[in-house]
Structures are given as structure tokens and as C-alpha cells.
């Protein structure tokens, strides 16, 4: 069940990234490449001038990628903390040393952990639209 939960989160995040790519990033990349090509068009410019020009062209894309990485990192951290909270609550009930659990206790522990982590995943998947909206707002501000 844990693997199913991971796949569910992965599909949701991948879907969000695909949407962001199609609605925002590709156009930004196109503009970045066109801008960079213009930088390279002038053969009389020095290498340093061309490099600085290309660097400026890449700025918004770099900022957008950094913002997306930060949002995804935050989501991952929050999800990990939620799952850790599940584990902590169960060890309070069953005891801290899982090696001392009976087979029945271990089975119950794992089942309850799976259910709790699945709830974490579902609640964090629900955050994806707001992440997508925040990212869109960020891109519009560039």
C-alpha cells in the first residue's frame, strides 16, 4: 500500500509539473532561447558581452525553476513530516522499539501506518492546485 501511495503522489506532482511546463515554462524557454540567439547574432561583440547577454536572457527561467524547486521541496518536507508524525503517534501506542513487537503488533502497526501515510498523501495532493496558482502568480511577477 505504501508504494501505491507514493505512486499516487508522484502522479499528482508529475501532472502539476506537466501543466506548469505547458502553461508557463515552455513559453519562457522559447523567449529565453530567442533572446540568447539575438545575443549571439552580433559577431562584433566580445565573448564577455555575449556571455553577459545570454546570462540575462536566462534570468527569468532560472528564477522560475528555483521557485518550482522550492515549492516542490517544501511539499516533500511537509509530506515527510506528516509521515513522521504518523510513525511517532504509532510508536507512542505500540512502544518505541519495533523489534520487540509481536507479529500481530507489527502487522497492525504497518497497517495503521499505511492508512495514516495515505491520509497525509491525500491532504498534500490537495495542496497542489494552490502550489500551481502560487507558481503562476510568481511567473506573472517576473
From TrEMBL:
<comment type="similarity">
    <text>Belongs to the FAM136 family.</text>
</comment>
<dbReference type="Pfam" id="PF05811">
    <property type="entry name" value="DUF842"/>
</dbReference>
<protein>
    <recommendedName>
        <fullName>Protein FAM136A</fullName>
    </recommendedName>
</protein>
<dbReference type="GO" id="GO:0005737">
    <property type="term" value="C:cytoplasm"/>
</dbReference>
<dbReference type="InterPro" id="IPR008560">
    <property type="entry name" value="DUF842_euk"/>
</dbReference>
Amino acid at each position: 500500500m505504501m508504494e501505491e501511495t507514493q505512486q499516487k503522489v508522484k502522479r499528482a506532482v508529475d501532472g502539476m509539473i506537466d501543466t506548469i511546463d505547458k502553461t508557463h515554462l515552455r513559453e519562457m524557454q522559447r523567449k529565453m532561447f530567442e533572446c540568447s540567439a539575438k545575443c549571439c547574432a552580433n559577431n562584433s561583440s566580445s565573448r564577455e558581452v555575449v556571455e553577459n547577454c545570454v546570462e540575462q536572457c536566462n534570468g527569468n527561467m532560472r528564477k522560475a525553476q528555483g521557485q518550482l524547486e522550492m515549492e516542490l521541496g517544501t511539499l516533500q518536507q511537509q509530506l515527510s513530516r506528516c509521515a513522521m508524525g504518523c510513525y511517532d503517534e504509532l510508536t507512542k501506542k505500540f512502544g518505541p522499539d519495533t523489534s520487540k513487537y509481536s507479529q500481530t503488533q507489527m502487522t497492525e502497526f504497518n497497517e495503521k501506518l499505511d492508512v495514516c501515510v495515505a491520509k497525509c498523501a491525500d491532504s498534500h495532493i490537495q495542496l497542489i492546485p494552490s502550489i500551481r496558482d502560487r507558481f503562476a502568480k510568481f511567473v506573472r511577477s517576473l
